[in-house]
Every structure is written in structure tokens, then in C-alpha cells.
Amino acid sequence: MSRIQCPRCLRPQSHCLCPLIPSLDSRTRVLLLQHSSEVNHALNTARLAALGLNNAELIVGEVFEDLPTLLKQPGYQARLLFPGDDAQPMQAYAATDEPLLLVVPDGTWRKARKMLHLNPLLAALPRVTLAEGGVSRYRLRKAPGPGALSTVEAIVQALEILEAPTSFAPLLKPFEALIEGQIAAMGEEVFQRNHGPK
User: Fold this and answer.
1) How is the chain classified by DSSP, letter by letter?
2) Residue 67 has pLDDT above 90, yes or no
3) What CATH number is given for 24-195 in this structure?
4) Which of 35, 38, 64, 96 is the most exposed place for a label (fewest CB within 10 A)?
5) How far apart are alpha carbons 31 and 15 in whole angstroms?
6) What pLDDT, in 10s, does the model give residues 129-188?
7) Nearby residues of 193 by Cβ (< 8 Å), 6 or more positions away
């Protein structure tokens, strides 16, 4: 028997995060392209980001037929938030007149790379990247390397660079509650055994 879900945050009704989700304005438009396998993931941080930002859109799939239309947002310059040899640091766009359309693939690194491969228009976008060394609060997943952040953390860091001194930290409140809830559900002993310091 399945638990009743909140139709907005997709969490079980008893663990609804909606009261913690802010409603934040941003000059930057955020386009989240979520791999379809992530939709029902318990830790769906892309959805939290899309719900908390008024100027954000979440599209689910693997091949995005509407990409040409989605990327043609008048008044915005599209940039892909994804590492690469030619990626520019986010700081390079902090003082530009034209706001960014920040395109953020959401999925495991492998799935995100596959999305780029299947969507040549996406792969061809100029890339931006965050400063190295960001520390994730995502204590339930092993990071593939230093500076690997969850989708919502990466978006918060990007927006705080692009739109300083505005704070986007309220976006992290539902994320932290989600992590705490998962840890409480598994129990401290199981959490320490699987995710604690080795």
C-alpha cells in the first residue's frame, strides 16, 4: 500500500516539504533538465530548486525535442552549468548586463553526460562552472570527487555569484530538512555505518 503523496513536492504527505520551500525571485532564469530516472528519487533536489525559484522551469526527459524553443529566451544568454575544458568561471558573468539562462542537467554524472550526448544543441552551449572546493551538505551520497554538489546546492552557489549580494540560502532549508528526515528514517546507527567517517 503506497503512502499518500503531496502533489507539489512529491514527498509523502506526512513529510511534505512545501512549508519550507521559499518563493524567490531571480534575474537569472534557471532551466532544469532532469533525467527521467530522477523523478521518483527520494532526494529529488532539482524539484525543490524549481519549486523555490519563481524564474525556474523543470523539464523531465532524456531527449528534449523542445530544446531550440527552450533555449531561445529573449533577453537571456544561455549557458550550460557543467564542467568542461572550455568552461568559464561563473564569476565571469557576475557583472554582465544580459541575464543568464542557466541550463542545469540533473542526474548522475553518467546520465548527465548521456543527456549531453543525446542533445547536441545542449552539448554545444557555452559552459560555465563553479569554483572548485565547494563542500556539499549532501551527507547521504558519496561525492564522486571534491566540489561535487547536489543540483540545488550548485544552483544556490551559482545564483549567489551571479546576483550578489542577494542570498539564495532559503532554497537549502527544504533540502536540509529532506536530508535530516532521511537520516532519521534510517536511524543514526545505520547512517553512521553507511555514511559516517571511515
Assistant:
1) -PPPBPTTT-SBGGG--GGG---B--SSEEEEEEEGGGTT-TT-HHHHHHHHBTTEEEEEESS-TTHHHHH--TT-EEEEES--TTPEEGGGGTT-SSPEEEEEEES-HHHHHHHHHH-HHHHTSPEEEPPTTPPP--TTS--SSTT---HHHHHHHHHHHHTTT---GGGHHHHHHHHHHHHHHH-HHHHHHHHS--
2) yes
3) 3.40.1280
4) 96
5) 26
6) 997 755 555 544 554 454 568 899 999 999 999 999 999 999 999 999 888 877 776 666
7) none
